[in-house]
Design a protein that fits this description.
This protein has a seven-stranded mixed β-sheet with strand order 19-18-15-20-22-21-23, with helices on both faces. The protein has a six-stranded mixed β-sheet with strand order 1-4-3-2-6-5, with helices on both faces. The protein has a six-stranded parallel β-sheet with strand order 11-10-9-12-13-14, sandwiched between helices. Helix 1 (9-22) crosses helix 3 (111-122) and helix 4 (154-165) packs across helix 9. It has 497 residues and is an alpha/beta fold. It has 16 helices and 23 strands. 34% of the residues lie in helices and 23% in strands.
């Protein structure tokens, strides 16, 4: 029997598939935790019929028993759900943290689904694992972080070594022959020779890539940073002092790099300031990268305020308040108000008109900070201005605007807007066919322009004047806004269809 401890789902799923080619194996999924569980829901472990184990689901408290239960499940072919810790039927297996772990043991999971998920992660795509035995729990997995390190000297090599020891892939881009020879002698896996700043090798940065500039001269900085900023890397950082970083940003600004893009460049880098030893600097920088990767996975909206505009007067709706009309068993406004319910945000702001008590109560119950726009009759721009001002007050770096009468918008679409925005855009709007529409997200440098809009002028007029913008396709059925009873009936009909 062997026991290994791969942590990433790609590795555990891969080992499960290897074992399944020649023998039977079980996949174990953490489906819920309470208290101080070591692993989060979605953590994986694989066990084969001879007792070999890959992965772990606790700090060693219950893993051996889970492996034993998995081997028994392989023999019977029956899936199990087990609870360890608080409320568990296994009093001899307490969790020192005082929490609880629920696990599903799947001796015959859908091989095709597991293979699909493993291939998605291997191809650097986020994925969701959908297995019927998990009873509606759909764990979401992101690719492993990887590093692209450009520079010279001890700092680059130290960071690559530390990353390799943590199981994080790193590509080194080095101009000096001695550094290249040393990296290859140490069997560091990916080494590329940099020739000239004007002829950089192509990159394949993705949203899970961190780019680290570790030059202590200016010859290469601007070209390499501009190249990184043209891609979707989640982390772009450069070594150097605060003065060096300020000069670096000035040089990029002179080259035409926009303010949203400049904000992506971190510096000085590292969780601990002024590290002067290569190994300590490497640990400090890698810790900052890991923190940024964690925020990307768990808190992508942490600096974004969500603004819900719900001050419309329902003038074209033939039967009362359109936002309180029933759609699929709840008010139209309730559908919009459920956006990103469990997502950490910089602020959750709803703007209503004077006297909209029922709307206010609904929104407050749904967890929104409600603002009354007493100038609502002067057009939607006034509600937008109120929302943007509240976002500024909350310290938000971006504002995502949704409408109360668009009940078909999914969290998946809002996540796509945010993901596109984080690549350094000043604004990202939805687009249906050739038509730009809400929802939309705006960088804080646009806030003043948004507050100056008048009448029914929408945020689209600001978007059209900006550089560094993008759009995300919104299906026509999701773009429906409720202005009339027939619109409501159409939305209801789509549900039944």
């Amino acid at each position: 029997m062997t026991c290994t401890y791969p942590e990433h789902p790609e590795d555990v799923l891969g080992q499960f598939l290897v074992w399944s080619e020649d023998a039977r194996a079980a996949l174990i999924v953490v489906t819920a935790t309470e208290g101080g569980g070591v692993r989060a829901p979605g953590a994986l472990m694989a066990v084969n019929e001879t007792g070999d184990v890959a992965g772990y689901i606790s700090g060693g408290c219950v893993d051996a028993d889970v492996a034993l239960q998995a081997r028994n499940a392989i023999k019977t072919g029956k899936a199990l759900t087990l609870l360890y810790g608080a409320g568990s039927p296994f009093p001899d297996l307490p969790l020192p943290c005082g929490g609880a772990i629920e696990v599903a043991i799947l001796p015959q999971p859908d091989i095709l689904e597991i293979r699909r998920a493993a291939r998605a992660l291997a191809s650097r795509q986020a994925t969701t694992l959908t297995l019927p035995e998990l009873d509606g729990f759909h764990p979401h997995y992101t690719p492993k972080p990887r590093l692209r390190i450009a520079g010279r000297g001890a700092d680059c090599l130290a960071l690559a070594r530390i990353a390799a020891s943590a199981g994080i892939a790193a590509e080194l881009q080095l101009p000096d022959e001695d550094d290249v020879a040393l990296a290859r002698a140490e069997n560091l896996p990916a080494v590329t020779r940099l020739v000239t700043p004007s002829d950089l090798p192509p990159t394949d940065d993705d949203p899970w890539t961190a780019f680290i500039l570790m030059f202590h001269d200016r010859d290469w900085e601007t070209s390499l940073l501009k190249q990184a900023l043209s891609g979707p890397a989640f982390y772009i950082g450069a070594v150097g002092s605060r003065r060096t970083h300020a000069n670096r940003l000035d040089a990029l600004k002179t080259e035409g790099v926009s303010a949203p893009q400049l904000e992506r460049v971190r510096g000085p880098i590292g969780l601990v300031a002024s590290m002067r030893d290569a190994s300590m600097l490497a640990i400090s920088v890698l810790a900052e990268i890991v923190s940024a990767y964690h925020d990307l996975r768990r808190k992508p909206f942490a600096q974004t305020a969500l603004i819900l505009l719900a001050a419309g007067q329902s003038q074209r709706f033939e039967s009362g308040d359109k936002l309180l009309a029933e759609l699929r068993g709840q008010a139209v406004l309730s559908h919009a108000a459920s956006a990103l319910t469990d997502t950490p945000l910089a602020a959750r702001i709803a703007v209503i008109g004077p006297g909209d008590r029922a709307r206010a109560e609904l929104l407050i119950d749904a967890g929104w900070d409600v603002i009354t726009n007493f100038d609502a009759e002067d057009g939607q721009s006034t509600s937008l201005a109120h929302g943007i001002l509240a976002a500024e007050t909350a310290g938000a770096k971006a504002a995502m605007v949704i409408l109360g009468d668009m009940p078909q918008i999914t969290d998946t679409h809002l996540e796509a807007l945010q993901a596109t925005f984080t690549s350094g855009k000043s604004s990202v709007m939805s687009q249906t066919g050739d038509v730009l529409c809400p929802p939309a997200i705006f960088h804080h440098t646009t806030f003043d322009a948004l507050k100056k809009l008048t009448g029914d002028a929408g945020a689209k007029s600001v978007f059209n004047k900006l550089a560094e913008t993008a759009t995300v396709d919104l299906p026509p059925q999701s773009a429906i806004d409720i202005d009339s009873v027939s619109d409501l009936e159409h939305a209801e009909g789509l549900t039944h269809a």
